[in-house]
């Protein structure tokens, strides 16, 4: 299979705090991982692309200092929402692909972030 | 410009009533078309990848087909548990691995 996990599944935090979300590929090596954000009843919005061992590439309009992405190994990427504010409340989803011409992305179950 | 359009936006079926979802795409050099199922509050679940016109893939009550301009997801004798949002996506031009998604079709199957 191709299983991707995310942790935590849900987090509530106070405004101004930082939140880290982990994304793991459990049974394959993910050359590339992607982070998405999804608002209610809307499709997925790509935030950034990360390749193992290199800096993430952010989409236009996404603040790289706000959303820190680390892809330290072929099975783990993390997204840190720094100094979170209520407008950062959303559903964050990661995906992973094997790369090397295999472009199918396998998605994690998502993380619901609520900033109070 | 790369584009993916899904129709209809929403579809209500009675249990057992077969139908099809459409995904039209515009991209130079198709390197695959992907179908996903997304349940509320969850990440998309991978269903199929199609690579060339004429290709078909099946999984239970679902069959995906591909032409040079569009893909169809046929649902045969659907059950209430097939209710979900179905997303299609294609890789954007250039070898970045990024996908462009359609807006999805929300399917509701009533018993």
Describe it.
The complex is a heterodimer of chains A (about 120) and B (about 110). With about 120 residues, chain A is mainly β. Chain A has no helices and eleven strands. In chain A, the strands form two sheets. In chain A, strands 2, 4, 5, 6, 9, 10 and 11 form a seven-stranded mixed β-sheet that branches. A four-stranded antiparallel β-sheet of chain A has the order 1-3-8-7, with no helix packed on it. The radius of gyration of chain A is 13 Å and the shape is globular. The N and C termini of chain A lie far apart (about 35 Å). Chain B is an all-beta fold. The mean pLDDT of chain B is about 95. The N and C termini of chain B lie far apart (about 40 Å). The interface of A and B includes residues 42, 93 and 99 of A.
The tally of strands of chain A reads 11
Q: How much helix, percentage-wise, in residues of chain A?
A: under 10%
Number of strand elements of chain B: 11
Please indicate the percent range of residues of chain B in DSSP E strands (runs of 2 or more). over 45%
The SSE order of chain B reads EEEEEEEEEEE
* Assembly context of the chains: heterodimer
> Residue ranges of chain A: pLDDT <50 for 5 or more in a row?
none
**Mean pLDDT over all positions of chain B:** 95
Helical fraction of chain B: under 10%
Our Rg estimate of chain A from Cα atoms comes to 13 Å
Mean pLDDT of chain A: 93
Class per helix and strand makeup of chain B: mainly beta
**Judging from the principal axes of the Cα atoms, what is the shape of chain A?**
globular
Distance between the termini of chain A: 37 Å
Low-pLDDT segments, ≥5 res of chain B = none
Main structural class of chain A? mainly beta
